Amino acid sequence: MRNRRESGETVRTLASLQKGMAGAEPYYPASRLGRPRLVGKKLTIGELASAAGVPSSTVRYYERAGLLRPSSRSPSNYRLYSGDELERLRFIRAAQATGFTLENVKALLRPAACGKVQGVIEERLSEVAERMKELRHVQRVLRASLSECQSHEASGRCRVVDELTARSKSSA
C-alpha cells in the first residue's frame, strides 16, 4: 500500500494550495483537485476524519486551534460538517505535509496576495534553516560520542555514560 505522500494526495505545490485564495471565501482545494464535492451531505466528526484520513482527535484539535469548525449541529448536538469543511481539512493536511506549521496554515487560509504568502514561506524557510543548524550540531555530538564509545569498548566502561553522569552531578 502506498502512503499518502507517494500517491500525491497530500503533496501539492504551494501554487496549487494557493490558487483561488484571492476570493472572499477561504480556499478549499478539494474541488480543484478533482475530488467530488459533498453537496448537501453532512458528515459527523468520525465520517469527516475518516474521509480525510485523520483521527477524530485531529479534527477536534484543529477546532480548538481555530482552523476548523462544524457547519452545524444535529438535533442531538453532534458536530456536523459539510463538504467545505472536508476540503478545508484536506488543505490543512496538505499544507502541513508541505512543511508549514499550523500558524502558517492559519495565514494561508486567509485570502492574501502572493507577496504575503511569500513572506510566510520565507519565514518558514528561516525557521527550518535554524532547526537544521541545531540538528547538525546534535549529529556532530552524537558521532563524537559514538566514536568515543567504540574506542573505549574494550575497557568495559562507557566513557560517554561516565561523562554524562559527571555532568549531571556538577549541574545539580
Report a brief summary of the structure.
The protein has 172 residues and is mainly alpha-helical. It has helices spanning 4-7, 14-18, 45-52, 56-64, 83-98, 102-109, 114-151, 159-170, and strands at 72-73, 79-80. Strand 1 (72-73) and strand 2 form a beta hairpin.
Topology, pairings included?
Elements: H1 4-7, H2 14-18, H3 45-52, H4 56-64, E1 72-73, E2 79-80, H5 83-98, H6 102-109, H7 114-151, H8 159-170
Antiparallel strand pairs: 1-2
Helix pairs in contact: 3-4, 3-5
Question: Care to describe what's here?
Answer:
By secondary structure, the chain is mostly helical. It has two domains: 4-111, Multidrug-efflux Transporter Regulator, Chain: A, Domain 2, CATH 1.10.1660; 127-170. Helix content is 58%, strand content 2%. It has eight helices and two strands; from the N terminus they run H-H-H-H-E-E-H-H-H-H. Strands 1-2 form a two-stranded antiparallel sheet. Strand 1 (72-73) and strand 2 (79-80) form a beta hairpin. It is elongated and about 70 Å long. It starts with a helix and ends with a helix. Mean pLDDT is 80; it is low at 1-36.
Radius of gyration: 23 Å
Proportion of residues in helical segments:
55-70%
Q: Under the CATH scheme, which architecture of the largest domain would be assigned?
A: Orthogonal Bundle
Mean pLDDT over the residues: 80
Amount of beta strand: under 5%
CATH class term of the largest domain = Mainly Alpha
Taking the sheet with the most strands, its summary is:
2 strands, antiparallel
Strand order of the largest sheet: 1-2
Q: Give the helices and strands as they follow along the chain.
A: HHHHEEHHHH
Number of domains: 2
Net shape: elongated
